[in-house]
Amino acid sequence: MPFFSFSLKKNFLNQKEFPYIAKKEIKNNITYYSKNTKLWKMLNKQESIKYTNFVSFEDRKLITQPKDSILFCLPPSIGLGDLIEYAIFVEKLEKSKKFKKVGVAFIGKYSFILKKYFNIKHVFSEIISKEKYYSFNNQFHVTLELEVFKLQKYNRKDINKYLSKYFGLNIINKNFKKFNKKNLTKITIFPVSQSPIRSLPPFLINRIIKAYKDKLKIEIVLDNSDISNFIESKLLSNNINIIKPETLEELCNVVDKIEFGIFMDSGPLHLAKLLNKNGILIITSVSHKELLNEDENIFPIQNNFKSKYCSSPCGLTNVFNLDGKVGCFQSLKISRENFFKIKNLNSLQRGNIKDSYVGLILKPVGCVENININKLTNLIDNIL
Question: Does one domain contain both 348 and 238?
Fold first, then answer.
């Protein structure tokens, strides 16, 4: 991941290409820091040289003794769920008064989420000026400081929990809203994540539809990804309402209005937790212990898949590219032990991994294929 500085002679960035960097945000001949890979590539193009004073990789530095003020520098291109976990922690740290000033940088496209749900004073989206960066006594690059977060793609951990432990904060449990069984008239299914190993295949969605289409209204929330488009093409159309939020704002409104959700490990799950919603989490590759953190509103459906190479939940957040083949521990026949002996794990995210997503929905990996829909329907029947 690049962490770099740059300075422009003239701001030539296209607002459509970089919508989360306001044109007025970048002033000429001022030094800025960023982790935006797309921006890094743009600034290093031959045709960009005439507009730049410099573009340079920067070293991240470990903090020795945190004091006074601290800026949390997030990894680039994080998902909505990760962002919410980071925000919960940062807001909690700010309220603790351990530091006089707390900020968070490189949040990308999620400014709306922080403004709507959190009270964090110092927030920076894709860039931060050198002056503002060093207005904080400490710059805390999360994946540099905490070893446990360096392998989040392959061994997912609860961000809020581990950061809270590091800074000596309690993990504060919220007041849970008691579910009223009598009022349930609809269920809302969120089958899609950014990965095929954390998404619900259409044949399983159709089983849920068949079980409840005559008893409840059924909503299915999709997006415009290849995974979503494939799922939509395979759905039974009886008595279901397909919703496709175009923006984060629309997605928040959808989650806010649900009665009962069926979630995979994805952004809507974390929004639902934030909004105190009730529902079910279907476990595949990531443990409910890392995702729910004792949330009493959302019930986990455990997965007992086991193979020679892995068992559910294995910790993976996505598939990887090993010797030109895309899959997981089980499908690529590599044990977790041997996998973590690979020296450059970042190299396993290269190549056209997304081109394999639909194929892995059509022919799911072991833990996805092993999802027990009977457990889910029994739980919903008990609620009804």
Answer: yes
